[in-house]
């Protein structure tokens, strides 16, 4: 199969492309800058319709990973990339008769600040002021759901807290803050959260690609992907820090205070146009201070997907990666 993977410079897109290549698929990457990867690459922005059209036209199927993540940026940036870029991809897919699309979303589209315990992929919700990433991804998910058809099957995958070797988002920020003595936990750190090792997230996208055939139950639906191993947030953070060889001494911030401080920081960052990631936002406080773990059965039943790398094994792989970069000897 000829597969276009957008956002090719991201860890998830790259690992997905590697898995597709390993089984013999023909891969094209779409991203803004060239990467050291021996596959066809189309350089450009998903907001550029002509670039997207050229990339999509050479393939049979699309895995759409490209997105603006994090919390720094204007609403117009998030909307143009995450919503406008997605619209360009599905419009090009329809014009070129693409056989299927896998759209990468996030569980945060359905997380409105309350605990999520053993739930499935509930409907994407909009109307959250300030949470630009979650809001824009919710709008994008609604868009692809409306476009899904027997002619163009679209499956949405919501990987939850993806981490692993090379991750600059979750792992990178935790380790950086621990090294700087700025690591904080919301509440007592006992909130149960699930996460997804990178290889499992990538294999879920591949499974969705294979499952999205005309008439399949998965078409037009969203699936939350995670390891299925809820851990206290403090335990997961400690495991990541241990793998990196850094001390864990987090400060505990009561949830009400974290929510209030996060709201103030959000407003200050927006007014001052600070380019760095803020230390805390209200949305982040909600995510770290409430339980959120999910029912793995829908993805198993409809996509035939199960995770193959456990959290503990993933932490061993992460430690080996840090060892290889630092030259320190594993213990």
Automatic annotation (TrEMBL):
Gene3D superfamilies (alphabetical): NAD(P)-binding Rossmann-like Domain (3.40.50.720)
InterPro entries to which the protein is assigned, alphabetical: Epimerase_deHydtase, Lipid_A_modif_metabolic_enz, NAD(P)-bd_dom_sf
Domain NAD-dependent epimerase/dehydratase as annotated: residue spans: 3-224
PANTHER family: BIFUNCTIONAL POLYMYXIN RESISTANCE PROTEIN ARNA, SHORT CHAIN DEHYDROGENASE_REDUCTASE FAMILY 42E, MEMBER 2
Record-given protein name: Unannotated protein
Organism, as annotated: freshwater metagenome
């Amino acid at each position: 199969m000829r597969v276009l993977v957008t956002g090719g410079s991201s860890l998830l897109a790259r690992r997905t492309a590697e898995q597709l290549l390993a089984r013999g698929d023909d891969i094209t990457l779409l991203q803004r800058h060239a990467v050291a990867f021996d596959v066809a690459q189309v350089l450009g922005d998903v907001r550029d319709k002509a670039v997207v059209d050229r990339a999509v036209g050479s393939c049979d199927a699309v895995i759409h990973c490209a997105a603006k993540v994090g919390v720094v940026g204007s609403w117009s940036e998030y909307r143009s990339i995450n919503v406008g870029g997605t619209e360009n991809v599905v419009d090009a897919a329809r014009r070129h008769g693409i056989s299927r699309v896998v759209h990468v979303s996030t569980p945060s589209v359905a997380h409105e600040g309350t605990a999520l315990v053993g739930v499935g992929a509930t409907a994407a919700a909009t109307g959250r002021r300030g949470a630009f990433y979650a809001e824009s991804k919710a709008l994008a998910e609604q868009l692809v759901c409306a476009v899904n058809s027997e002619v163009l099957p679209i499956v949405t995958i919501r990987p939850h807290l993806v981490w692993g070797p090379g991750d600059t988002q979750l792992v990178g920020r935790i380790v950086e803050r621990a090294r700087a003595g700025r690591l904080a936990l919301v509440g007592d750190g006992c909130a149960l959260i699930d996460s997804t090792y990178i290889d499992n997230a990538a294999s879920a996208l591949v499974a969705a690609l294979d499952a999205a055939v005309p008439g399949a139950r998965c078409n037009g639906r969203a699936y939350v992907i995670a390891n299925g191993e809820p851990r206290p947030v403090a335990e997961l953070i400690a495991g990541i820090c241990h793998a990196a060889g850094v001390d864990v001494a987090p400060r505990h911030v009561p949830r009400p205070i974290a929510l209030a401080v996060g709201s103030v920081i959000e407003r200050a960052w927006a007014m001052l146009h600070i380019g760095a990631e803020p230390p805390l936002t209200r949305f982040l406080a909600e995510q770290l201070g409430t339980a959120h773990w999910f029912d793995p059965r829908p993805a198993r039943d409809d996509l035939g997907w199960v995770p193959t790398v456990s959290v503990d094994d993933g932490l061993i792989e992460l430690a080996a990666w840090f060892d290889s970069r630092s030259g320190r000897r594993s213990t």
